Automatic annotation (TrEMBL):
One of its GO terms (molecular function) is enzyme regulator activity. It is found in: Mitochondrion inner membrane. Belongs to the cytochrome c oxidase subunit 6A family. This is Uncharacterized protein. The keyword Transmembrane helix applies. It comes from the Eukaryota. It comes from Drosophila ananassae (Fruit fly). The keyword Mitochondrion applies.
Length: 160
C-alpha cells in the first residue's frame, strides 16, 4: 500500500508545494520595505554592562550590525569617531596649528610633485630626441645601403 501513495505525494510536492513556496517567496520579497534607522537615545536603563563582552573589542555583541545596532553611549558607528571617545575636544588653537602644519605639508608635496613632473617631462623629451636621432641614423644607413647596392649593380652591368 505504500507504493501507490508515494506517487501521489511526489506529485503533490512537485506540482503543489514547490510552486506555492516560490510564489510566497516572490510575494514576501516584492512587498518588503526596509525601515529607516531610529534615532539613538541613550536611555539610562539600557546598555548597562558591568563587564565587557569576551569577544571582539568588548563593546559589540556577537551578532553586531553596525547599521542598526548603536554603541553605548555614543550612538551609531557611522555617526561617531571612535578614536575620539574619552578625549577632550580639539581647541581652536590646536585646530589652527594642525591646519597650518597640513598647509605646509601640502605645499611641500605640491612642490615635489612639480619637480617630479618636470623630471618626467625632461626624460620624455630626451627619449623623443634620441628616437628621432636613431630614426635619422637608420634612414641614413638605409640610403647608404641603397647607394652601395646601386654601385654594385652598375659594376656588374659594366662587367657584362
Amino acid at each position: 500500500t505504500t507504493g501507490k501513495h508515494a506517487g501521489r505525494w511526489k506529485k503533490f510536492s512537485l506540482f503543489g508545494a514547490l510552486p506555492l513556496v516560490a510564489i510566497l517567496t516572490l510575494l514576501v520579497f516584492s512587498s518588503h520595505m526596509e525601515m529607516d534607522r531610529s534615532e539613538f537615545k541613550n536611555y539610562t536603563h539600557m546598555y548597562k554592562r558591568s563587564k565587557p563582552f569576551w569577544f571582539r573589542d568588548g563593546n559589540r555583541t556577537a551578532f553586531h550590525n553596525s547599521h542598526f545596532n548603536a554603541l553605548p553611549p555614543a550612538g551609531y558607528e557611522d555617526e561617531v569617531d571612535e578614536s575620539s571617545i574619552g578625549k577632550e575636544p580639539e581647541s581652536e588653537k590646536d585646530k589652527k596649528k594642525r591646519l597650518n602644519e597640513f598647509q605646509k605639508l601640502s605645499k611641500n608635496w605640491h612642490r615635489h610633485v612639480g619637480k617630479r613632473d618636470a623630471q618626467i617631462k625632461k626624460e620624455q623629451e630626451t627619449s623623443a630626441k634620441e628616437a628621432k636621432r636613431q630614426q635619422a641614423q637608420e634612414e641614413k644607413d638605409e640610403q647608404q645601403i641603397q647607394k652601395n647596392n646601386a654601385k654594385k649593380e652598375n659594376k656588374s652591368i659594366e662587367e657584362h
